[in-house]
Write a structure and sequence with these properties.
The protein has 388 residues and is mostly beta strands. Helix content is 13%, strand content 37%.
Length: 388
């Protein structure tokens, strides 16, 4: 009887130790979470839900990264919820902080549910101590005809953000690099019975749509924000029927425009701009305009934010480079605490099921002084140590 008791105690002790070890192992696994990036794969947040922050950008503030992006639903790309916010301290593991800017229930509101809210970006203004959100806005039921930028603010990084207004930038102001004869040209869209002819394209390059939209402001669609070393902020967006990029300087409070802006690659048909600065030089990666279908990325560089901007070959190399690895650029993230470390952020769209769209994050490498993007099935931040 005594022997059986000893055996029972031994069995129970073994069972306890085994369960303890398994529990510790699971706890360790849960604590560690992701330790690598897996481009194109399912990326779950702390609640084991696929991250829903598409067309987004990241703000680094108070030792934490905040990822803002479009909340996509299962069957439509129109805004049903608003702009999501996630936080992370290591870039691998993300916590959902909630909806930073919600759609409005009021009929007729600019941001009424079923409008289009795309490409949200947030920057921090140290002088006003406000967080400023810009996004591409299309009004409910009007397709992509509005071509507005929406602006919202918050005193707290995660929000909620207060919607201020939408507009078309720089009404009644000419671009800095548009010549006098282009400004005074009398050629209008009525002079052309068809688009995409050689004559029409030359007219576009000469400011056909800038003149058309002069009084009401320039069209603003795919966009990003950039804060330079001196604290000056810029709104960079696809304009002129997505045929020309504009770079517009923002006011000191980041809530309006100074009226100084330029055209980049007139008639080049670029969208999805993403910009960064390295060693005093500006680089911008964009995409062509093929709807939800991927295409080859474009690369531009300049010694000044005001140009001139020079176009270079596709920065992607290797298999599927001509499709930007089946994705489209959205933002370029400088990694905090690492010199010359930048992450190319892109979306792999799934228009039939928008919520399932995945993310392509890749380290930017440099060859002959230019950014290069190479596919990697998985990688981690140590790659930047290896390139020193």
């Amino acid at each position: 009887m005594k022997l059986r008791s000893i055996q029972l105690v031994s069995f129970l002790l073994t069972l306890f130790l085994a369960s303890t070890l398994i529990g510790c192992s699971l706890e360790k696994k849960q604590t560690l979470g992701f330790q690598n990036f897996y481009p194109g794969k399912l990326w779950s947040d702390a609640d084991s839900v696929h991250i829903n922050a598409h067309g987004g950008g990241i703000l680094y503030y108070d030792n934490t990264y905040y990822w803002f992006g479009e909340h996509k639903s299962a069957h439509t790309s129109s805004a049903q919820v608003g702009v999501n916010c996630y936080s992370s301290t290591d870039l691998y593991n993300w916590k959902h902080e909630g909806v930073a800017l919600s759609v409005n229930d009021s009929v007729g509101s600019d941001i009424e549910a079923c409008c289009v809210m795309e490409r949200p970006k947030v920057i921090y203004n140290a002088e006003t101590q406000q967080f400023v959100l810009y996004f591409h806005l299309e009004l409910k039921g009007k397709g992509y005809s509005a071509a507005h930028v929406g602006i919202a603010i918050s005193d707290k990084v995660t929000g909620p953000y207060t919607y201020l207004r939408s507009l078309r930038p720089n009404p009644g102001i000419w671009p800095q690099n548009m010549k006098g004869e282009q400004q005074t040209s009398t050629i209008t869209t009525d002079n052309f019975s068809a688009w995409w002819t050689e004559e029409w394209m030359q007219a576009v390059k000469d400011g056909l749509f800038v003149r058309r939209d002069f009084e009401g402001g320039q069209m603003s669609r795919d966009m990003t924000l950039f804060v330079d070393d001196d604290g000056k902020a810029y709104h960079i967006f696809a304009s002129e029927e997505n045929l020309t990029l504009h770079i517009a300087e923002l006011s000191d409070d980041y809530l309006s425009y100074t009226g100084t802006y330029i055209r980049v690659a007139p008639g080049g048909h670029n969208e999805a701009p993403a910009i960064f600065k390295k060693n005093g030089k500006y680089f911008m990666i964009t995409s062509g305009c093929t709807g939800w279908d991927p295409n080859a990325a474009r690369l531009f560089s300049a010694e000044s934010i005001w140009g001139p901007w020079t176009q270079h070959p596709n920065p992607c190399v290797g298999p599927d480079a001509d499709l930007t690895f089946h994705s489209q650029s959205t933002y370029i993230l400088p990694v905090a605490g690492k010199d010359d470390a930048f992450i190319f952020m892109a979306d792999r769209w799934t228009p039939k099921k928008p919520i399932e769209a995945s993310y392509i994050w890749l380290p930017i490498q440099f060859e002959n002084g230019l950014p290069v993007l190479k596919w990697q099935d998985q990688w981690d931040l140590s790659v930047f140590n290896e390139t020193k």
